[in-house]
Amino acid sequence: MASGQPMGPVQQGPYPGYAPVYQAPPKPMIDTVKRAVSDLPMALGLVLAIFLIWLGAVISGWSDDNDIEKAGTFVMSFGMLLITIVLFVGGLVRSDMDMWVRVALIISAVLLIAWVGFWPQEISINWPTV
């Protein structure tokens, strides 16, 4: 329509003055997850996991009591769990990274679980006997 020309009649809905409200289509859930696994949260998660592994090793190494040694082993194992989760989820979700970087993240998480595991071998759980 050229400038200065009068507009034609406006279409009216069932109610005078009613105009439908525009609703944007919802974002896919993967976009929210990608934001949570961006570069900064991944780096912070890896640094926190390495710190927990170090702290657990220090606690269990300097302990004289068996319970404190188990607590240090738990902290170390929680750090190992956190590092494998960050690597595995980062490799699965981050589609903006190169394919081989994502494959390396997933393989490194799997190798950490296979070779290191979550619990050291010297921990024994004393199950109650009936």
Q: What do you see in this structure?
A:
It is a single chain. The protein is mainly alpha-helical. The chain has a domain of 88 residues. It contains 4 helices and no strands. Helix 2 runs antiparallel to helix 3 and helix 3 packs antiparallel against helix 4.
Compact summary:
By secondary structure, the protein is an all-alpha fold. The protein contains four helices and no strands. The model has no long low-confidence stretch (mean pLDDT 81).
SSE layout:
Layout: H1 29-36, H2 39-62, H3 66-93, H4 99-116
Helix pairs in contact: 2-3, 3-4
* Class per helix and strand makeup: mainly alpha
Q: What is the number of E strands?
A: 0
How are helices and strands ordered from N to C?
Answer: HHHH
The N- and C-terminal alpha carbons lie at a distance of: 89 Å
Which segments are poorly predicted (pLDDT under 50) over 5 or more consecutive residues?
none
SS strand fraction: under 5%
Give the radius of gyration. 28 Å
Number of helices: 4
Fraction of residues in H or I helices: 55-70%
List keywords for this structure.
130 residues
